[in-house]
Amino acid sequence: MRLRKFRVKAYRCIHDSGEITVGDLAAFVGRNESGKTTILQALTLLNRDEMVSELDLCDEMSEELKDEVRLVEGDFDLSSNEIHLLKQSFPELPEIRRVKLFRSNKKLKVQYEFEGIKINEEENNRLNSWENFSKQILNFLDTIPNHLRIQIDTEFFDGSVPKNQEIFDSGMAEFSNQFHVIAVQEPKIVEEWEKIYESPENQFSKFLSGESERSALENFISSQILPRFVYFSDYKKIYGNINLNEFLREEKGEREGSIEFVEEFDKAETVRNLFYLAELDIRTLDEVKESPSKCIKVLNTASNRLTKKLNPAWKGDPIHVDLRYSPGNIMSVVISDVHRDGTVTNTGLLNRRAEGFKWTFSFIVNFAAETQRAELKEAILLLDEPARNLHPTQQMGISDLLKSLAGSNQVLYATHSPFMIFDYTPGNLLVVELDKRKHLSKIFYDYWNADDKTLTPILYGLSRGLVESIVDREIGTNSRPVIIVETMSDAMYLNAFDKFLQDPNISMNPLNVVAAYNKNSVLPLAIFYRNHGYKTFILMDNSEESKQISSQLVSNEFSPVQTIFFEREGRNLESIEDYIVLEDYLHAVNQTYEIQLRREGYSSLTSKDVALKDRKGILDSLKAIWEDHREENWGQFDNEEITRYICEKIALEETSFLSDKTKDQFRSLYRLIAERIRQHQNAITKSDLAKFQRVRARD
User: Against a cut of 0.70, is the pTM above it?
Assistant: First the structure.
């Protein structure tokens, strides 16, 4: 199940978040005390074992809270496997594809809604549930002689449903053995019991839990397929030397002093997580500590496990972690840097490392341990500032960890960092703002409409070097038109060929081109510029995704003439590279990849090689050629390398390989851009004139 929409109401500082759509890896961005943490913590109320505290209810909504209020609700989509699983267990019900869960201030349990599906809430004795199975056993026992009945312990059937198959089998076997001993003189009664015991219908794997169809369905979803919300916030710092005596007292609940020798751990959980990742049983260590050889072997094995589990999230040169035992029952955490050439340097206690290093190490230990211990699969992970105090390169390491977790889980996290924003699609990026007068938090799905200061991390992520110019309205008002392009390659070609053609009739000397971070960011970046007074145009390829972006731009009050698609002579083009004659472009490809091509037996790639791929554009054809040679270690075709080669040659005036036809085709692009700018300017002028005439008519 994946959370697709949620709403929070009357919870702490959130009066009403409104309905919010979220993706599989969604970031919440907002200033301090804007309500990001509150939103994440509110979602944990959808866990069945979570409790609602009176202190969490919004003080300003005391009147509304006299009635039942849904504090949090979430719409979940089921996967195809989950839909099939429900159909198998509840064949008489219509197919269930979506479930709404909510928790209110008046009822203790999480409640369910199945939109458009009627589910029976009356008690059903025919339901194959644990409750009915227990009744069947107890009813059977009521039929046997009383002198036998009073000897039989039925506690197993009086309790709640067993947690797993093992507990069920053990309880049933114990009860059956007891029954056989007590009823050994009554073979017919034993025979009746055996029929029940061995019945294929009475298998734990087939049991539901509940006395009605609705309760059974809700319990099944809760226990079998509902993802758990797991909240991470308190990432404690590890220093170096652990006093194992104090740690063992802490484990037994007998804490008297610090569990750290010289330096201290913030909490015992951190030590526990370290040992968990290392798969180190402290009691096993206690047994072997008097034997140096056995102790070293145990600790070396644990150290290697720990190192292996930490390095995937560690950017830069790998590290090696050594756990060392010292007299006085002290364990030391020793860190070494492992370089690419295999050399090991900078070996020393963790407490000698920089604060940022210790925090990074501690975060990865805590996070990796908690996620692995919970066996997180199809969970919804809620992370509060997972990258605080981290250098950008380490933030990127954490981002890789989050992306890998998002494959089998859903990850929602709060951040201030532009380096922790991976996706600019609405729903995967949400903004939280606080209205200070009303003390209300507001969530922006259309995040570009939020306050500029709140958006600073997003703006840096979209186009980090341009933030100052974007928010300076004077620059926008007085500047030349801005042309938003999808990639840096597009920007480089436009600027390079503008100077190269030296055609005063079409030159915009120089063009004001802004390269977006990726295709996702074209829409918000264009809106940001437009909202700050720039005359904004968008240049894109002719893909379906680009056409959808164009439609979204129109719905955000852009004129259709402001979106320019690559085209030539009435034919759609897949990329700006398709304005370059094929032979000219292949010259740059062959020069750039000359050594690699010769090594693989190619003198050069030809237009015939490209034509054989029969793809829509030149880039797709070349990527297909590179893909054909993937097993020969060609890697991936990098069109930006070719862009750099061509633009560098233009700057050096070494352009003999560029034909007149390529120049003419680029001229057609500049003419198209200039024509659209004129059309837009004329439309604005006519609009302004009409407004002026209406004002004069009123006067």
Answer: no
